[in-house]
Amino acid sequence: MKFINRTRELEFLQKKYHSNEAELIVLYGRRRIGKTELLNEFSKHKKPLYFLGRAESKEDTLRRFNMLLMESFNDISLARSPLSRWDDFFEYLAEKAKTRIVLIIDEFPFIVEKFPEILSILQDKWDSLLRESKIMLVLCGSSISMMEKYTLDYRSPIYGRRTGQWMVDRLDIVHLKDFFPKYNFEEILTVYSVIDTIPGYLARFDSSLPVWENIENKVLSKGEFLYEEVEILLREEFRDPSNYMSILSAVAGGLTDFNEIYNKTKLDKSFLSKYLFVLEKLGIIEKIQPVTLSFKPKLKAIGARYSIKDNFFDFWFRFVYTNLPELERGNSASIAKAIQKDFSEYLGKKFESAVMELIPHLDIFQYTRIGKWWYKDEEIDIVALNENTKEILFCECKWQNKKIDTGVLVELLDKVKSVEWNDDTRKEYFMVVSKSGFTEKAEKFAKQNDFSLITLKELEELF
Questions:
Q1: Cys-Cys with 272: which of 68, 123, 249, 267 at CB 3.0–4.6 Å?
Q2: Are the C-beta atoms of residues 453 and 441 closer than 8 Å to each other?
Q3: Listing from the earlier edge strand, what are the strands of the sheet with 451-455?
Q4: CB neighbours of 291 closer than 8 A, spacing ≥ 6?
Q5: How far apart are CA 427 and CA 81, in angstroms?
Q6: Could you tell me which of 385, 391, 361, 360 has the C-alpha nearest to residue 372?
Q7: What pLDDT digit, counting tens, does each position of 1-54 carry?
Q8: CB 139 within 8 A of CB 24
Q9: Domain extents for the chain?
């Protein structure tokens, strides 16, 4: 499969490579997000030293590192007198790094767990030798919590030594078409709603097969890679993921308020707050507040709601976790059919998220914030605003099998009156996005009231 996008990440790494200074880069992100592929793409024509941390003995780790150095620098002396301490390794590298060399240590937490002293040794050798060399040292890992603990936390010995860090995140939604060129917008949206834009998951789907055949074969079938992936990810981050699974199950079931989650899980409130914070930091859930809130109310988390940000986690807890007994018996085909019957409502919510991600590509104005807005019983799907230019966009998204009439547009205009944000000076934009298009009356009303009406065809053109 060809390498797709990651332009900003590659530009960052290339900039650091050409800095002509010592660089200590922390690169991290969840499993299957594409870190190794990114590093492989960056490494083309550079011949870096690549070392993978593995679950093995200390002796085997040191032996492999000696072999890497011996082969990379054609140094036969290491066969006769291998290096046996990390001090020696870093001193050797400092001596060799008179010109630019790149050392990538992948799955760095595996190394630290076996050699906890490596952090203090790296601190010492960086300060005394390496920072004056031409080395580019990239520490990479998949366990977000462990990478932050070992490399970014102020209690880490190498805190303050890094010269850059990058958390590798999901692909932009517009790149899904690169994986599935034959899929239409609804099929692309279905993929997005089920496995998100995680490259390692997208690669598991066969672009020549119907989308629901892929879902049944790859997500709902026992033994397949994606079937237990969520549980594996949680076990990788947490020793005991049971409480986190209870929280995620509650949120996937529609409980968005803190007290609702508390009543469902029965967890101590202080622990629940901590668990939610950790899940938020990992990018699995998000805490949502009305986008127009000012700074102080935001700090107090007034009116906050929780939702599952990661679509794969959301789908898994809604449709896989709840059907595990039947799926364990091998009834994936019948469960897939049952899910399709209830899928439209779920897809409607993901449609809102997809449109929110696509709005920057519509080139309306440069916003500084984007999100949802609500007050009491009123809610607007998407509100984007620019605090500098006082511009604001109000957008409704309708995923239904009938054309949108003027009622939706009139209702949006009424709701906008309740949105308190630069009331006298703001410039307003209005948009409605519809799966099934618009009636002639709606189109006429839109022209008279300066609305943008967006159809699936127009969204598909953005891919």
A1: 267
A2: no
A3: 369-375, 378-386, 391-398, 427-434, 451-455
A4: 369, 370, 371, 372, 373, 383, 384, 385
A5: 73
A6: 385
A7: 567 889 999 999 999 999 989 999 999 998 899 999 999 999 998 989 999 999
A8: yes
A9: 7-167, 219-341, 351-460
**Which pair of structure tokens corresponds to residue 132?**
């004056």
Q: What is the pLDDT of residues 322-380, one digit of tens each?
A: 999 999 999 999 999 999 998 999 999 999 999 999 999 998 999 999 999 999 899 99
Residue 104: strand, helix, or coil:
strand
- Asked if 458 and 419 count as a contact pair (C-beta separation under 8 A), the reply is no
Tokens of 416: 């906008």
What is the distance between the alpha carbons of residues 452 and 362, in angstroms, rounded to a whole number?
11
CATH number at 219-341? 1.10.10.10
Which residues are 135's β-sheet partners? 101
Structure tokens at 334: 């019948």
pTM assigned to the model = 0.91
* Three-state DSSP state, 452: strand
Rounded to an integer, the average pLDDT of 140-150 is: 92
The upper half-sphere exposure of residue 208, i.e. CA atoms within 13 Å in the direction of its Cβ, equals 0
**414-433 tens-digit pLDDT:** 999 999 999 999 999 999 99
The answer to whether domain 351-460 has CATH 3.30.230.10 is: no
pLDDT of residue 432: 98
**Contact assessment for residue 202 and residue 37, using Cβ atoms and an 8 Å cutoff:** no
Contacts of 325 (CB under 8 A, 6+ apart): none
How many whole angstroms from its chain centre is CA 332?
Answer: 28
How far, in Å, CA of 285 to CA of 164, rounded? 26
Q: Under CATH, which architecture does the 7-167 domain have?
A: 3-Layer(aba) Sandwich (3.40)
pLDDT at 3: 77
72-77 long-range CB contacts below 8 Å, 24 or more apart? 72/47
Triad 210, 214, 216: Cα angle to 5°? 115
pLDDT band at 294 (very low <50, low <70, confident <90, very high): confident
